[in-house]
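Can you make up a protein sequence with its C-alpha cells?

===
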Amino acid sequence: SDFHGPGGWSEIGEYRPVLEDLPPLWCRFKHEPIIAA
C-alpha cells in the first residue's frame, strides 16, 4: 500500500485490515513512539 513509515510500519500497512478486527494487536504497536503525520 501507499502507507510507508519508520520501521515496521511498512508491515503494519499490510495488517491494517487485521488491526481493525484485532484491537489488542494495535495496542502492542502503540507502545512505540509513532507519529502519524
User: Anything to note?
Assistant: The longest helix spans residues 23-30.
